[in-house]
Amino acid sequence: MTTFLRTLEFLSLGLWLGSDLFLSFVVAPGAFHVLATRDQAGVMVGFALTRMHIGGIICGVIFLLARLARTRSFASVGAPAALCVLMMIAATLVSQFTVSAKMAALRGQMGSIQATAAESPLLAEFTRLHSISVSLESVVLLAGIAAMFLLVREAARLT
User: Fold this and answer.
1) pLDDT tens profile 52-104
2) Burial letters for 65-89: b for 16+ Cβ neighbours within 10 Å, e otherwise?
3) Do 53 and 31 contact (CB within 8 A), yes or no?
4) Which of 14, 31, 94, 128 is the residue whose CA sits 20 to 30 A from 154?
5) DSSP class per residue in 119-155
6) For residue 140, what are the domain limits?
């Protein structure tokens, strides 16, 4: 059972990291390259980002539940790998339910980001929020890489 639970920890973290990397380096650039307008690409990336965020939160919860079941100790949530996953969950929650929500509202007010005047305060706010979104995704990615390293190191110590 311990091996199965540890596998769930690695699998959930690996799926989350993989989806983040795929969205960041394949889906988003591809959408802006292939689709006819930046507005269409933005809608596509926003759709994918929402799904990735929900999947990431689910993966994070699975990671923590598997860890608790494996260690049978709430103290294990204070271990460095688990703290990284908690940071990932927190950053994802902020990104999805605060930053992305505000960006969607601004997108609705502007109608078309592509057609909005460069000096528009709505566009300036959208650009600022986009920068925050990218920073939060970077935190998730870096915390995920750190969590994976720490999880591997932890597993190596046990063998």
Assistant:
1) 999 999 999 999 999 999 999 999 899 999 999 999 999 999 999 999 999 99
2) ebbbebeeeeebeebebbebbbbbb
3) no
4) 94
5) T-HHHHHHHHHHHHHHHHHHHHHHHHHHHHHHHHHHH
6) 2-158
